[in-house]
């Protein structure tokens, strides 16, 4: 946790504290007036005063997401990545900016009486009435070059079957039912249980595919449009190597309900997958050994190749985790605010990327997130680990899309 306990200025920071003095009912976290926990957080730790875990926040006034940098080295590494991306005019960085959340700098809060730094990021679900969100961690390998043997072993055991087969894993998602409007949330404990067929079924569920009804091909196509562009970038870029980084895919179920209506009387069922079907149709990619990637890129070649390629053709039901308890985000309804603070965010248009969120597709969005394990490339090689994971996700979504009649 980023703490500077000896700094007297900590008393002046807007603070989040754990109130365990309530005479009745459970103790709650109390937040500055403009801040509230991010309800659609689906991965990582939520706020918990008893365990003193820190989750993500949203500022109601600006709409910015506040992501805590709770581990000093990893947090500073992610901040450095965003800062370097913001200030770079390198063609690779300029292209990459299109696929990461807009970055507005950092701020600090006093959390559980410790100074904690937060990254301020654009909310990709902004404007969505019923945001369905899934966190997909990309890569056959999720441990970075600095990982200890113990850390490497731990990472290899996580989501092992999914990563081995697909080169990605689902760490959690939430989805509003297109029929009932009810929200269901699945946490990381659920994601760890998913096998080969379970991953495909989770994607079906996230896409609101209903047995006996056709897939909304427009939704899948919109997601694939983003993924093809990211894959295209990773077919060329040699500047960065991404480990344990995720894609955040979001769409608005309300829009889906209104503009992609289900056809009554259809007898075509949504695709059902078993292990043999998956292995025959989406064969595993050979996992390369430890990658070393190059930070040197031929800028003119990259720019010309990108230019050429561009011209070519929901009431909430909490899903119990393994322990049988529900996601602790359910407690956010009981959160009480402290008195209004002087906390403010300056979201000037000087962050990473082109501020195109207001002009791009407003009901489907895909962004790359989680950059605590990004390293410079070496040896003039591609980031095959990330690229192949994206490629496998594209193949699986295409399999889902093509397995049904035209919508």
Pattern of helices and strands: EEEEEHHEEEHHEEHHHEEHHHEEEEH
- What are the segments in which pLDDT stays under 50 over at least 5 consecutive residues? 1-6, 265-271, 286-298, 311-344
Q: Taking Cα atoms only, what radius of gyration do you get, to the nearest Å?
A: 21 Å
Total helix count?
A: 11
Distance between the termini: 49 Å
As a percent range, the share of helical residues equals 25-40%
Q: Globular, elongated, flat, extended or rod-shaped: what is the shape?
A: globular
Q: Which structural class should the secondary elements be placed in?
A: alpha+beta
Kindly report the average pLDDT value: 77
Q: Please give the order of strands in the largest beta sheet.
A: 3-4-5-7-6-1-2-14
Question: What's a concise summary of this model?
Answer:
With 407 residues, the chain is of the alpha+beta class.
How is the secondary structure organized here?
Layout: E1 15-19, E2 28-31, E3 35-37, E4 57-59, E5 65-68, H1 72-87, H2 91-96, E6 103-111, E7 114-121, E8 131-138, H3 149-157, H4 160-166, E9 168-176, E10 183-186, H5 188-192, H6 196-206, H7 217-234, E11 240-242, E12 245-252, H8 253-259, H9 275-281, H10 299-311, E13 316-318, E14 336-337, E15 364-369, E16 374-376, H11 384-402
Parallel strand pairs: 1-6, 2-14, 10-13
Antiparallel strand pairs: 1-2, 3-4, 4-5, 5-7, 6-7, 8-9, 8-12, 9-10, 11-16, 12-15
